[in-house]
Amino acid sequence: MKILMLCLGNICRSPLAEGILRNKLSSDFEIDSAGTISMHEGQKADKRSIKVATNHHVDINEHRSRPITAEDFENFDRIYCMDLHNLEDALSMAKNDEQRAKVSLILDVLTSGKSNEVPDPYWGDLSDFENVYQMLDEACDVIAKEINFNSKTI
Which end of the chain has a smaller Cβ tally under 10 Å, C or N? Predict the structure, then answer.
């Protein structure tokens, strides 16, 4: 199973989600992240994301931002978006219904159909990043449990 986390610049939310989920799953799973814009391409995660992740024993120090590509829709089984703008951008890039079916809001795993969004902490302070971490940690718990359950029943 291959999972892609998607946010705007791929320096705050999606690297956190990638690191959190990677910590919850075995190395049999491929977890990556990307952004809908290329403005930060090649940059490390935001230092506040790195700090919050480190505080929770999640290592995202090697992360480098990258934009989502058409190949991602072929290569990944699931694409979790942080907010409605990311969702709309991803759906507009999908070539067909099969690819669109892979795309959803990450917080929908907690509250299906309510379109809850992970707020962008970029303009906030460390407490905003901590809040985002807690939201993503809860969502990634659900995702990991579901994936581990499904892989055991196959």
Answer: C
d(CA 9, CA 97): 25
**Annotation says 100 is catalytic:** no
22: annotated active-site residue: no
Dist. CA 88–CA 84, nearest whole Å? 6
Model pTM? 0.95
From 13, 22, 46, 140, the catalytic residue:
13
**Interval 38-72: pLDDT, tens:** 999 999 999 999 999 999 999 999 999 999 999 99
Strands 103-105 and 2-7, by their bridges, are: unpaired
Q: Is 78 a catalytic residue?
A: no
